[in-house]
Amino acid sequence: MSELKSLLKKTLHEEIPLTREICISVITASPQLIELSAPLAPNINHKCTAFGGSLYAVAVLAGWSMVFARLHAAGLHAHIVIQDAQIEYLLPVVETINARCELVSNVEFDRCLKLFSRKGRGRIALDVQIVTQQGLAVRFCGNYVIHV
């Protein structure tokens, strides 16, 4: 297991106890790609599909984890919070929840880190997708703030 992957798993489970309750696993952790998963059983609703709150939580955490990975790669420590978000539930999820946050360009993150170094605060918008065998189930966009 990569250093970042094990550090992220440890941080999530120690600092965000909900991640243990919903059984979050770190599948991939790099400064370009975060993949998290959570089994259906502890996240199920009365319709035998994934609970919307669990889908939201896994999506938020995938974005949070991307910020964590980027800060780690830059050798920086900061508080990470979600400022606001939009989510679209497109399909029911009837299998393991798999969330993916991929950074295709470094430009926005570099801008965020530059602002953080100047003002002690930066902001970045990140997209997360939850994809199932049936297709794109959840589209999420969250604004994350880093601060000292």
From TrEMBL:
Domain Thioesterase putative: from-to ranges: 8-147
InterPro entries, sorted: HotDog_dom_sf, YiiD_C
Domain of life, source organism: Bacteria
Name of this protein: YiiD C-terminal domain-containing protein
